[in-house]
Amino acid sequence: RILCVPSGLSPHVRSIDQLRSMEKPTDSEPSGAVCDLLWSKFDPDTTGWSGCGLVSEFGCDFLDEFLTKNKLEMIICSDRLTQYGHESFHG
Question: Is 19 left (phi over 0), alpha (psi -120 to 50) or beta?
Answer without folding.
Answer: alpha
